[in-house]
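From the methods appendix. Each design record in this collection lists the tokenized structure first, followed by the designed amino acid sequence. Records were kept in a plain field format so they could be parsed without special tools. The example shown here is representative of the layout used throughout.

RECORD:
FOLD TOKENS (86 positions):
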């Protein structure tokens, strides 16, 4: 809940601290990986965003929202070969 509150306030650094703590305890928590990917995306850290979204996509292949976020990350990272392969 703290991570969501900080994310809503735009305080990405504090949100990352809480999300990282969750991921350390339960690495299979897909929603938290997705939130961390969104934070990285907002910070223009596309390689980290791609890593987080790829993990979610591999663990939940039918997750359409993650596929779109991953495609957007590749597009922002200027990787046209991977942009729409999902």
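DESIGN:
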């Amino acid at each position: 809940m703290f991570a969501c509150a900080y994310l809503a306030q735009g305080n990405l650094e504090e949100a990352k601290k809480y999300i990282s703590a969750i991921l350390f305890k339960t690495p299979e928590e897909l929603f938290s990986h997705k939130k961390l990917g969104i934070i990285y995306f907002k910070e223009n850290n596309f390689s980290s965003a791609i890593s987080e979204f790829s993990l979610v996509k591999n663990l939940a292949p039918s997750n359409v929202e993650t596929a779109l976020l991953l495609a957007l990350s590749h597009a922002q990272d200027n990787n046209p070969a991977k942009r729409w392969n999902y």
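APPENDIX NOTE: The helical segments are 2-9, 12-25, 30-42, 46-59, 64-76.
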